[in-house]
Amino acid sequence: MTKEESVTLRLTKPEKADLEAAATLTGQPPGTLAALYVKEGVRRSLFPAIEFRDGAPGRVAYVTGTRWPVWMVVDLVKDLDGNTLKAAKRLEKPVAVVKMALAYAEAYPGEIAASLALHAHRDFEGLKAVSPSLEEL
To answer: Is the model's pTM score more than 0.85?
Structure first.
């Protein structure tokens, strides 16, 4: 585990108020939320085709402008035997975007593995265990 270090951050009063409001909504201290936003901002500067949204587990990396989380792109490429061109056609995005998602996944393997593990049991039987009235069509 990497040791955390402190950074001083200056915000305007309205920015601080917005951060505090967002922190209240998420139930996190403002400093923790600010650190998360900085971490995500750094990652976005390295991987501009990636954005972050609330999801399970926690904040989830998505391909910008799509409903595709990065973990799902990784899974799709795997299902397509590594064919990034077919994956790009499925996503209706350039191959470079798919490759950037894969590069992000390679840079942050723990994050992607956690999402893959969480969603591995979301087949019909797994969902039926949670919602017994679920019916297969």
So the answer is: no
Token duo for residue 43: 């990652």
| ∠ Cα 10 11 17 (to 5°) | 145
Q: Which residues contact 93 (CB under 8 A, 6 or more apart)?
A: 63, 65, 66
Q: Tokens 């056609």, residue? A: 89
Question: What angle is formed at CA 37 by the lines to CA 11 and CA 48, rounded to 5 degrees?
Answer: 115
Q: What is the pLDDT of residues 95-123, one digit of tens each?
A: 999 999 999 999 999 999 988 888 776 66
61: three-class secondary structure by DSSP: strand
User: 52 by DSSP, 3-state: which?
Assistant: strand
For 31, the enclosing helix (H) or strand (E) is: helix 30-46
